[in-house]
Amino acid sequence: MRPALARALERLTVRTYADDEVGPFHRFCLDAAAALGWTRADDLDDLDGGIGFGIEPVNINGGVRVNAAFAYIDPARARPNLTILDDALCDRIAFAPAGGGEAIVRRGGEETRIAAATIVLTAGAYGSPAILQRSGVGDPAVLEAARIPTVLELRGVGRNLHDHPLVELEFTGSDRLRAELAESAAARFTPEEQTLGKLRSSRASGPFDIHLFPVAAHPHSLLAGRVMLVVAAMEPRSRGILRVLGPDPELAPLIDHGYLSDADGHDRAVLAEGSEGTRELAATEPLRSMIGDELASTAQSPIDRFHAHYFHPVGTCAMGLASDPFAVCDGAGRVYGLKGVVVADCSLMPVIPRANTNLPAVLVGERIAETLL
Asked: How far apart are the C-alpha atoms of 63 and 356, rounded to whole Å?
C-alpha cells in the first residue's frame, strides 16, 4: 500500500503547516500540551506514531482544499476517452449476464443509460450500498420491505455501518482570544482546525485510540464565536445499518449508525476517558485563560446526550473472504456474484482506520484503479 499512499499524498499536495503559519489559538494549545508534558508529534501521518500532540498535515493551498476532483479529474478532462456527466443521480444498475451492464442515471429530468463491461461504484458509504440495493442486491428482507425484487442475495450490503463517534466540549472563550483571532483572520488565512492530539485510553488495542482536536472559529466562520475541544473514539465497536425505503433514488435511505450501542459500553467509556484528558488540557495555561469555562451544556450532560460524528462513515460494502456471509466484495473491490461490478470507496472498509478518511478514500481509489489497470 505504501507506493499508492505516496501517489495519493503527492496528488493531494499534502503538507504540514510551518510553525509561523500556526494561528494564535493553536499556539496556545501547543504550549498547554507542552506544559502538560505531552510529546510533540512532528508527523501525525506517521503510520507507526503513537500518542502525542502536534500540527496537522493538510492539503490546503492558498486557503483552498485540494479535493479529489482537483487532483484527479482536472488533469484528465481533455482526454478523448473521458466523458463527464454533471448533475447526474445514479439510480441503479441493470446487470448483464456477461458482466457489467447499464448504469441507469437521472439527469435533467430524463433517464440516461450508460453501458459498460466494468462499472465502478464510488458513491461512498451511503451511496454505494443504496445503489446496489435499488439494483436488487442485498438482504432479501430489506429489499422486499422496499418493494424491490431480489436479483442477488448479499446480506452484508448496508450492514456494518460505522463512524468515529465524538463529543464536543464547548467553552466560553475570552475577549483576548476573540481579538487575536480577528486580528489574525484580517491578516492571513487562519484555519479553525490546525492542531491534533492522539491519546490512548485504557481500552486501546493499538498505540492510540483517541483524537483530540481543538476548534476556534474566527469572526467570518459559520461557527463564529464557538471554541471547542473535540474528542473522537478512533476504534469504535458500535455498528449500524443503511437500507433503502423504496426504489425511488430521490427517496432518502434510512441511515442508523448505531452510535454508542456496543454491548459492553466500549465507545462511551473511551469518549469519557478522552473527555477527562481533554479537560486537563483545557485547565492548563496558557490555554485556560484563553478559552474560559466549559459550558454547562457539555460539562454536566451525559455523553449519550451530546455525542456527534466525525463525518467518516465506512463499512457498508465490506471486503471479506468469500466464506464470510456478510462480505460484499473481495480484496480488489469486486462484488461477489457480479462480474464486472466493483466498489472503490470507504464502504469497502470492514473496520474503520484510526484516521480521518479523506486520504484513505483516495488511497482506496488508487489501489482499486491499480488492480483494474
From this structure: 20
Is the model's pLDDT at 1 over the cut of 90? no
Residues whose CB falls within 8 Å of the CB of residue 189, separated by 6 or more in sequence, listed in order: 60, 62, 63
- Residue 332's Cβ-count burial label (10 Å; 0-12, 13-18, 19+) is middle
For domain 22-41+48-54+164-238+260-309, the CATH class is alpha beta
Instruction: Indicate the CATH number of 85-161+313-372 among 3.50.50.60, 3.90.1170.20, 3.40.309.10, 3.40.640.10.
Output: 3.50.50.60
pLDDT digit string (tens) for 179-235?
Answer: 999 899 888 888 899 999 999 999 999 899 999 999 998 777 766 778 999 999 999
- Give the DSSP H or E segment for 168: strand 165-171
Task: Indicate if the alpha-carbon torsion angle 66, 67, 71, 75 is positive or negative.
Answer: negative
Q: Which amino acid is at 271?
A: L
CA distance 242 to 245: 10
Alpha-carbon distances of 303 from 117, 211, 214, 275, rounded to whole Å: 49, 16, 18, 9
The domain locations on the chain are 1-17+56-84, 22-41+48-54+164-238+260-309, 85-161+313-372
* DSSP 3-state of 333: coil
- The whole-number pLDDT of residue 188 equals 87
The per-residue DSSP string of 50-76 comes to -SEEEEPEE-EETTEE--HIIIIIGGG
Beta-sheet pairing, 119-121 with 341-343? parallel
DSSP string covering 82-144: -----SEEEEEEEE-TTS-EEEEEEETTEEEEEEESSEEE-SHHHHHHHHHHHTTEE-HHHHH
d(CA 13, CA 6): 10
Classify the C-alpha dihedral 173-174-177-178 as positive or negative. Answer: positive
Q: Which long-range contacts (CB under 8 A, 24 or more apart) does 113-116 make?
A: 114/85, 116/340
